[in-house]
Amino acid sequence: MPKCSIHLHDCTSSRIHSHGYDPESKTLALRFNNKGTPGPTYQYANVTTEMYEGLMNAESIGKWFGANLQGKTEAHPFTKMDPEEQAEEQQP
Q1: pLDDT above 50 (res 55)
Q2: pTM summary value
Q3: Which of 48, 4, 54 is closest to 26 using CA atoms?
Q4: Residue 2 belongs to a domain
Q5: Are residues 90 and 13 in contact, defined by beta-carbon separation less than 8 angstroms?
Q6: pLDDT at 50
Q7: Is the backbone of residue 38 left (phi > 0), alpha (psi -120 to 50) or beta?
Q8: Cα separation of 21 and 31, whole Å?
Q9: Is 64 helix (H, G, I), strand (E, B) or coil?
Q10: Distance between CA 30 and CA 17 in Å, rounded?
């Protein structure tokens, strides 16, 4: 599995733990919540800067994800990132 090289920013959401964006590759990284703890990170392709701005301005990031990315794998294929790297991120 690949490692996530996109810097993630924490957010307030019951569904999404943190997010990040690389405008050069148009890749959105989302780390999901898993029963109150940080869960897996996924990278979504073909996400425009305007879409990322929409996420940043959304009243609910989880609802934005559901409306704009979830189930839209042809337009925005995703990759699950390496969980070993995530474990390293959690350590102080």
Answers
A1: yes
A2: 0.84
A3: 48
A4: no
A5: no
A6: 97
A7: beta
A8: 12
A9: helix
A10: 8
- What is the dihedral sign for C-alpha 61, 66, 72, 78? positive
Closest by CA to 69, choosing from 58, 80, 55, is: 55
Residue 10's DSSP bridge partners are: 18
User: Is residue 3 in a domain?
Assistant: no
Residue range(s) defining the domain that contains residue 53? 9-90
Mean pLDDT of 70-90: 75
pLDDT of residue 27: 96
Q: How many domains does the chain have?
A: 1
Whole-angstrom distance, CA of residue 20 vs CA of residue 29: 5
Element (H, E) at 9: strand 9-10
Token pair 């042809």 is found at 74
In a domain, 66, yes or no: yes
Which residues does residue 87 pair with via DSSP β-bridges, in sequence order? none
Q: What residue type is 44 in one-letter code? A: Y
Give the contacts of 27 (CB within 8 A, at least 6 positions apart): 6, 21, 43, 44, 45, 47
Is 63 a member of any domain? yes
